[in-house]
Amino acid sequence: MLRLRRTLLGGFVPALALSVMAATALPASAQTPPPQREAVIEVSGEGRVSVAPDMAIVSFSVVTDAKTAREALDANSKSMTDVLAALRTSGIADRDLQTSGFAVNPQYRYPENNNGNEPPTLIGYQVANTLTVRLREIAKLGAIIDQAVTLGVNQGGSIQFTNDKPDATLNEARKSAVADAIAKAKTLADAAGVKLGRVIEINENAGRPEPVPMMARAMAKDLAEAAVPIANGENNYNVTVNLTFAIDP
C-alpha cells in the first residue's frame, strides 16, 4: 500500500519518493572505489669519493700555574702572544686564528684522611688559553707545532684534516650514487620481468667527510727537538640517494 506524507505546503507526496531522494544524496566518495596505487621500484645508491685534505684544523693550549691569578695570567698572556706572533709570521691570516677556550681556575691541596674536617688549602691559580688554527698549508704543520711548543704551548688538543672547498668532490659522489641506484633499479626490473619507467622521486642524504683525526697527547718541551711527523691520509666523502621509479605497463 502506498503511503502519503503531508508537506509544509499542505500537499501529499509519496513516501517512496522521499526514500529515493535520500539515496541519491549519498556522498560520491561512498560510491567511488579508491584509485589503485602506482607500481614503483624504490632503490638506494651510494657514492664514495676519496680526496687528499688541503687544510688542517689544529687546537692547542698554553697552561700556566702561579701563586696568584695575576701572575698566572701575565705569564700565560706572554706565551700566547709569542705563539700568535710566530703563527702570523709563518703566514697564517688572522681569520684562521681563533681563541676557542679560556679559563682561570683556583688550585687546591686537599688534605688526606681528614674525614672532611679540614678544608682544602688554596695553593695557586691556573690559566688555560686554547687556540684553534686553520692551517691551509699542511706541509707546514710539523714545523708550526714545533715552534708553538718552543714558545709555550704545553697541552695539545686535536688535529683534524679537512678540505676547504669540497663541493666538486661531493658532486662526484652524488653522480656515483645516482649511477649506483639506476643500476640497482635496472637489475630489479630485469629480474622481475618489468619495464623500468620514469623517475618519480629523488632525495639525498649527503654525509659530511670522514676526516682523519689525530688526537694529540699533552705536548712536552722535548717535542721541539725534532720535526713532528705528520701523516694526513685522505678524506672520504659519502653520499646516499633514494630513487623511486615507475614501472611501465
What's the CATH first level of the largest domain? Alpha Beta
Going by CATH, the architecture of the largest domain would be 2-Layer Sandwich
**Rough outline:** elongated
Please tell me how large the radius of gyration is.
Answer: 37 Å
Helix content percent band: 25-40%
Write the layout of secondary structure elements.
Layout lengths: L3 E3 L5 E3 H10 L15 E12 L3 E12 L2 H21 L7 E13 L11 E15 L5 H11 L3 E8 L4 H26 L2 E12 L5 E4 L19 E14 L1
Antiparallel strand pairs: 1-2, 3-10, 4-6, 4-7, 5-6, 7-9, 8-10
Provide a descriptive summary of the structure in words.
This protein is of the alpha+beta class and 249 residues long. The protein folds into 2 domains: 40-50 and 168-207 and 242-248, 2-Layer Sandwich (Translation Initiation Factor IF3), CATH 3.30.110; 53-164 and 211-231, Alpha-Beta Plaits. It is 27% helix and 39% strand. The protein contains 4 helices and 10 strands; from the N terminus they run ββαββαββαβαβββ. The chain has helices spanning 15-24, 69-89, 141-151, 167-192; strands at 4-6, 12-14, 40-51, 55-66, 97-109, 121-135, 155-162, 195-206, 212-215, 235-248. The strands form 3 sheets. A 5-stranded antiparallel β-sheet has the order 5-6-4-7-9. A 3-stranded antiparallel β-sheet has the order 3-10-8. It has a two-stranded antiparallel ribbon with strand order 1-2. A hairpin with a 5-residue loop joins strand 1 (4-6) and strand 2 (12-14). Helix 2 runs antiparallel to helix 3. The protein is elongated. The two termini are 56 Å apart. Mean pLDDT is 83; it is low at 1-9, 15-23 and 213-225.
